[in-house]
Amino acid sequence: MEKTPQGTPVGVDDPYEFAGVCDYLTGEGQCRYAFDHYEHDPEFARERAREDYECPVVDPETDQSWVDCPHFRSRNRDRECVRCGLAEKRMAHDDERPLLEEHHLSYDRDGETLSHEITVYLCRWCHAKVHDSWARITDDAAPDPEAIAALEERRSREHEELSFESAAKRYERGDE
Fold this sequence. Notes:
It contains five helices and five strands, in the order ααβββββααα.
């Protein structure tokens, strides 16, 4: 199983199984990294410019994969835990700790630091289980009871905030 630089497990054997398309890939199949960040890797940018910024990974005539691209990045955008399915519930103007945390899947491989950022979302409870034990992201898991309680508590507060109370009723109560 892959491990962090501190030696804790990340919950997967192959991070690329959880990678989606590259965040830099445009709908037209072009590499936005080479165009927007040419100063970070001029050689890469020149090579992509010669090919009209086409991404070689999505070209069906090549056998390249995301592993071959030096600037691949895939961040999960779904706001739910990939392990137990707990959905995020953020409260506006609140500093409470989020229910979901970004979990990085790719670190060092055989002493070589990977430049690829592959992340998914895990709830705080699954995140702790993955890092503190041999729990895997692919485990069939239900949300932790504490996680459900935290989610329901936030939903209750949200419903309270959404309820309408006229100013007349509020002032009426204040006079009593």
